[in-house]
Structures
1.
Amino acid sequence: MTESIRLNDGLLLPPVGFGTYKAESTAEAVRTAVECGYRLIDTASVYGNETEVGQGLESSGVNRGNLFVTSKVWRTDLGYNAAKKAFEASLKRLSLDYLDLYLIHWPANSRNFDDWADVNSETWCALEDLQQEGLIKSIGVSNFWPEHLEKLLKRARVVPAVNQLEFHPGYQQRIIIELCRQHNITVQAWSPLARGRLAEDEVLNVVASKYGKSVSQIILRWTVQQNIIPIPKSANSNRIKENIDIFDFELSAEDMSHISAIPQKGFSGERPDLWPDRQRT
Ligand SMILES: NC(=O)C1=CN([C@@H]2O[C@H](COP(=O)(O)OP(=O)(O)OC[C@H]3O[C@@H](n4cnc5c(N)ncnc54)[C@H](OP(=O)(O)O)[C@@H]3O)[C@@H](O)[C@H]2O)C=CC1
Ligand SMILES: O=C1CO[C@H](CO)[C@@H](O)[C@@H]1O
């Protein structure tokens, strides 16, 4: 792998991570991923697989200090006390004594809390305190749109190091990404492969043939060339390898632009302003 990404708090993260949502045989998938060179592993309490992620990391034999483990506080655990409790439970399930990165998975919003901005700030305060106690190296958010981030920043002691967002050529969320750049907040891309929804895209297939790479490799390379950290999930050892084998070529500026101009047609339908009424538009 090439260059790491330095977060605004100084922590260095690998340029590609490994997603574990719905990873079949999670422990084995995580061990394979670590064997293939992944060092950043993404999980969440809601995935129900933190115990298996911990087992996979343990069985990899790689020193804890060389691994970067992310988990997230779920929607039902927002608030100061609930978030602290959720963190402790995640840590225990993972069999770890600290996390590298802990995120608010989805923001509270005006549909589910009258005082949604306070709820997000109180949750954030719990993460700040846990970081201060040395239990988390870096703290961040996920699925925060400008309205959530701007309110949070007004009261935060610590600027989030990361905002993990849906991001792929078919859904580029440029407004929030630009705001993150302004605050030196690193973006991580969830569903970086759009769960296969872009596999038939003509531009991606033409570029893939030109470089002799797969469509997935082209998408991931396009992502890392923007200093955005993709966290692709696969439970298949060949695809796990393929998704990290993206550091022996570079997309030209012209091909980057072609991919960035793909119509926005791959959105998952999940938006931070809709929960809990509905998740799909
Ligand atoms: N913060 C948040 O709200 C969210 C975070 N996430 C995180 O992001 C991670 C990645 O996102 P995810 O939604 O899983 O989707 P991805 O975009 O990573 O796509 C995963 C799907 O693509 C397939 N796949 C993987 N690699 C390849 C390849 N090289 N060629 C063809 N198909 C491939 C996988 O199948 P197979 O396993 O068979 O290879 C799987 O079906 C999650 O696992 C999770 O950790 C995800 C959603 C929301
Ligand atoms: O992290 C996640 C995994 O995928 C789920 C379903 O798309 C999301 O809701 C959740 O945020």
2.
Amino acid sequence: MQQLSFFDGGLQSPKLPVELMDYRPAFFSAEESGRLISALKQNIQWNQETILMYGKLLNTPRLTAWYGDNSKTYAFSGKSYDPYPWTKELLEIKHRVDAAAGITFNSVLLNLYRNGNDSVAWHADDEPELGRNPIIASVSFGQVRRFEVRHKADKKQKYSVDLENGSLLIMKGDLQHHWEHQVPKSTKALGERINLTFRVIS
Ligand SMILES: O=C(O)CCC(=O)C(=O)O
Ligand SMILES: [Fe+2]
């Protein structure tokens, strides 16, 4: 199913380039997604991280958690994270995603977007531990949110896709090198969404 959506300027997003993004809606059924989002809300140790911006300590606009094989420490935004050990639900999701991507992921970053005011700002997942052109598998449960991608050097080149409940988005190629992505805030009253990005940390 190809998704056409409207980008900020009212332009239709062009078809996602398959060499960068492979979008699979309904990768998990509605029943599985409902069960998994409740389990993740309850069993994950959600943290409120902070970031230093212009000399002020601000709360990250979402809750996060880092899980994975032990010994896979991950550093980003000037902090380093030791993962919590895999839970039953995370392993269930990981096994499905591993099979679809043909990769054995060793860690996952979880984001809980509580409402439309939660977001993730423009960034690329280009930390050195991920290596050049990493494959990152992004699973979404709950509220549909807009995922936007733009080229770093030519910001007019952009794409967007609405990440639906139970969907899988495989990010690959040079997406983390030449492009950046965000999940913008929305002024609409939005419900909760959990996103999981499975990664291989060296
Ligand atoms: O929530 C999303 O869809 C994207 C999250 C993301 O980009 C990240 O955790 O690096
Ligand atoms: Fe990201």
3.
Amino acid sequence: MRNSSETHARHWLNPVWRDYWELGKPRVVLVMLVCVLVGMALAVPGLPPLDKVLAGLVGIGLASMGAAAFNHLLDRRLDRLMLRTASRPVAEGRLGSLQAGLYASLLSVAGITLLWWEVNPLTAWLTLASLLGYALVYTAFLKRVTPQNITIGGLAGAAPPLLGWVAVTGQIHPDALLLVLIIFAWTPPHFWALAIYKQDEYARAGVPMLPVTHGETFARLQVWLYSWLTVAATLLPFATGMSGWLYLVGVVALNLRFLQWNWRVWRGSDRQVPLAAFWFSIRYILLLFLLLLADHYVRLVF
Ligand code: HEM
Ligand SMILES: CC(C)=CCC/C(C)=C/CC/C(C)=C/COP(=O)(O)OP(=O)(O)O
């Protein structure tokens, strides 16, 4: 048992708000909100209406953090079995299941309600579908039963640009679906690179991730193949006229780096390469969406 001074030191260093904040996976949600914002910006020729932008970002942000908190709750036993996740707040018992469940419900209900009243019902429905897709379909079911968990579950994570687009226009447009396709195709190279690096932990925890069920070589090949699918998807905004030359030049440069990293994942044997490719995938998707944004406004001005 901890003595009181240790307990005090721990609370001082790790206050409870920080645990609640961590439940929402804030860094992942931040990148998702950038994708939401880009969806909003590309949906209209000028600036999107500020009230929809603010209510949309807050509502989708709350719902996404709620979904992430449900993931922490439902995965608490699994998380305990892996080094990367063992010290998470619910897994380690710093927050109880009831607390986490109430917090996740509160964020989710607040987010969806805000979207319903201040944005539009379609955005609320689509966000609810993404929330349930990640928290229930992916976390509680797919993750535990099939190595295709993230290809199917990735649809929920890919939704943000569509949510942003619909928040501003109230309608689903094919261009928004192109943006969803980019994230959807990018998710397997993003995640399987990490899964290759962490395959021993997933195997020990009994999670059927691709490198565990089909072997490391097959997973490395899939990362390489899906990175080509991602490259193809990223060229569609230019091919359809949605984005211009600035986007094309930038995305070709990004894609060359992306392919280089994923080629090294496929051909290399260095154990650190998949981890580096995973971190590059995050910079890649962030820069790609910022590029779409820059291209959109440059084309408006010139
Ligand atoms: C089902 C789809 C996805 C899966 C399975 C997945 C999986 C993961 C995993 C396991 C991590 C490591 C988390 C950690 O160590 O705490 C991670 C990190 C990350 N993911 Fe994904 N991801 C998905 C979709 C996305 C999407 C759609 C985005 C953004 C658009 C995203 C952005 C990030 C970011 C920014 C990080 C780094 C977080 C940090 O700094 O700790 N991911 N992802
Ligand atoms: C409303 C909406 C857009 C919802 C999407 C919410 C959301 C935060 C998705 C995140 C995707 C992600 C990090 C998956 C990893 O889960 P994991 O359980 O495989 O990874 P872990 O082991 O790190 O928990």
4.
Amino acid sequence: MASFSSSLPQSSFHREMAASETARLPVAENFVSLAVYNRPVSCRSAKTIYRKLCGLKLWMLENLSIQNSKRKHEQKNEFKMQKIEDKDQLLDHSDPRHQREDIQELSAAAVVSNESSLSSNTRHEENSSPNKQFDQFRKIGTSMESSHFQQTQTSSITFQGRPTSLSIAVIGATGELARRKIFPALFALYYSGFLPEFSSSHLLKNVSSTLNVYIFGYSRKNITDDDLRSIIASTLTCRIDQQQNCDEKMEAFLRRMYYLNGGHDNREGMSKLHARMEQVEGEHGANRIFYLSVPQEALQDVASSLADGAQSQKGWNRIIIEKPFGSDLQSSHQLTDSLLLKFNEKQLYRIDHLLGRNTIENLTVLRFSNLVFMPLWNRNYIRNVQVILSEDLGLKTPEGYLNSYGVIADVVHSHIFQTIALLAMEPPVTLQGEDVRNKKVKLLRSIRKLESSEVIVGCCSPASGSKGTAKSGKATPTYFAAALYIDNARWDGVPFLIKVGRGLITHRVEIRIQFHQVPGNIYRGHIGNNTDLTNNELILRDVPDEAILVRVNNKIPGLGIYLDASELNLLYKDKYNIEVPDSYEQLLHDVIDGDNHLFMRSDEVASAWNVLYPVLQELDKNNLVPEQYELGGRGPDNAIYLWAKHGVQWMDD
Ligand SMILES: NC(=O)C1=CN([C@@H]2O[C@H](COP(=O)(O)OP(=O)(O)OC[C@H]3O[C@@H](n4cnc5c(N)ncnc54)[C@H](OP(=O)(O)O)[C@@H]3O)[C@@H](O)[C@H]2O)C=CC1
Ligand SMILES: O=C1O[C@H](COP(=O)(O)O)[C@@H](O)[C@H](O)[C@H]1O
């Protein structure tokens, strides 16, 4: 064991810890001994970390070698923390008193006063935060990122006095999702410089604000900090473009990680977690994020115990909740009520990682920043919209999870409805989370209730290996197709066709926007028999190979006039030579940033379930029976008739 506490400032707690030979709990890396992992780890780089956890010498080397890049990150992080503080001082538009558009419409004066209050905050944030521009660069991922940032940031740093750390507690830390997705995403944010990090250079510069990040894991397993570190070490990797010093970054990240065995009473467990967090955070201000990655049945107990026992009193608290968000209107109401009893709406971040995909963010960028599409985005020009999430046999998500929840609760209710909301909503006033959520909920409330005649539900044939049984005891629906209508002036009569399925022949995730035929087309005689094929189409493809495609008609070269339908193709991997961050990474970054536009607000959750209500009832009464389909096939035959009824020939298979 090596200690390097001598030259660094210490709180009384830290002094005690450092002095005590018997002190077992490691606290912040700069104050205490490094423990050596006591479990073997499986991957090569993790073994290297095991070897390298050897104390002071390493620490000095590490600091010498990465000091420059750390300085850069510290500056970034100072901005980010400043921005977070500002965000949480914004008017709470998620408060039901402010959020309902109909109330806003009735009370123009209130709207003006609310919006001016919000926009003045917004203006302040935009002025004070070059981070905004920086984030744009990060999302594009160009190598200009750091130089741009360095050029713009120095004049705008201000500290608001109090040093503040950020603690992220993963509740359910030993679970499948935490290991496979959450910790790796946190690590990626850490090594990319998006988590605040303490560095001695702060002290050298005598800067009073100390920023730091701590990661906590919580479950009921009787393991130690080092056990958790060993488990997590085997799951961490650096992206191809971030390989430099990967082992050191892992090691530094793992040293910030602590485990708390909460035992079988979460009330007691959360108090213990709080005490442990306070120990580690020291006397600083402390913002906390709690990621609830626990089984649905444990969610309410965990949330309520946490609310009472583990929230920071010295900063903000944000709670991330995993999907599914209930299984129908009633259960989601119950969950929402129990959450809102203990938390404010603006503390809640309901995460659906599929919404963190680049394609989803691109959807609104494409819509609202291209004049070429804006005038066409309505029933006069758009004939139908297709939202497709078709998965083949190579699923990475574990069977246990897939078999627990059917695709309706897991994918349709959140991912598909949110995609439609973003695609079809009116333009929000700003990109602020609550502005976007206001427009999404208005759209969701305009979707006509879905009748079972407009729906095909399917189940993989048992003979082909799907043993899934939903929580209800019924077979888990693995396929869902439907035609939705939005009853508003923009979309009246336009079918929105959904198709979600697992175990299908193709793996394809895309949004297709098909335009009407050209009225009075003078080239009609030069098109083949299938005039549908000549409709213009805009396709946002996520899988395979992210791309934006526009189908246009062009002349085939040569004598005579023969038309061909061709695709203008922006293939991302050709244009941008970067590894796209995982969607969990993207969304965790948003939570840290206080940006909630991709997280469903309680009223959005309820509105989406409301649309699905008649179908769920029919399924419940067995009036709607899932059709069996063959694994590796095209899904239920009747789906084809559903498309045909709405004049659509599916193009994806
Ligand atoms: N796995 C996936 O791919 C996805 C999962 N999700 C959602 O994420 C959540 C977690 O899923 P997953 O990781 O697969 O589940 P797991 O069952 O693998 O893990 C659950 C975790 O929660 C802990 N836990 C269980 N019961 C309690 C309790 N009463 N109090 C405190 N901790 C408890 C478990 O540890 P211990 O028993 O030791 O306490 C374990 O660490 C679920 O809500 C799921 O719906 C969402 C999308 C995808
Ligand atoms: O939540 C889900 O996501 C996975 C896709 O996750 P990814 O990390 O592989 O993009 C999907 O396969 C699954 O059906 C769905 O439940």
